[in-house]
Amino acid sequence: MESLSKIREKVRLPLCIKIPPYLMDHQYRGKAVLPAVEAIEILAVSTLDHLPGTAVHSILDARFDKFLVIEDGQQQIDAFNDLEVFDNGRVISRFITRTKSKKAMITRTLEHATLCFHGVSSAPEPPLLGIPTDSGYHVPAEAIYQSLVPFGSSYHNLKELTLFKEGARGQVYAPLLGDPERLLGSPFPLDAAFHAACVWGQRYAGLVGFPVGFGLRRLLMPTHPGNTYISRIFPKEIHSNRVLVDIWITDKDGTIHEVVVDAVMQDVSGGRIKPPSWILG
Question: Which of 11, 46, 118, 270 is deepest in the core (most CB within 10 A)?
Fold first, then answer.
């Protein structure tokens, strides 16, 4: 734990993030917001540049506390990576922005994402999805993006989804968008896997959840643009405003690319956004 280890370095690194057009398709209530998967990549690149050798492919205790809104016509995001380096090897990375009120002339600091980079000796074994008692509930991709996850076309990457009470299985696609040689691979398959978890939560928990954190992400093999992968969702806990799930992304032959443990899919609308009646199980 960080409280039992001393900080040996603190530094604030500037982030100047160009906004590609596809980001405008990632929206919450009509406003474009930076996806959690993009924030992870940005912090990983910045941290590795400053601290070569950091275990950026292993992330613990991630939090995505506040949306970063991208305004229409905005060309870049000016932000910071606040780093704390501990003597036990852990590195805490925080994605922050600073805004100044024109009226009060007060500078406000907002923390959008927090990650802990730390090596993990081995990946956990994937749990077995219980054999369903029926053929499952198939949700067409068109229906997902029309009324369940209303994002623009750049984020229509959950191509097939079958739901079971015990979990879900879907095909997730990595489109040919952005830098093809990203440090952590394509961000789109994991983003689409979050869509699958969101849809599962709408049917079986009656809530519309966004990813607000996870306990562990372990990237074993980067995903690549132009490829399709299999995502499996393993629900663990259902609460009044959130669902806890594990996510596994594999090749079609079962080779694991990445795993996310204890992903929190939370209703961030305060109950104002409800699932449509047709999806409720």
Answer: 46
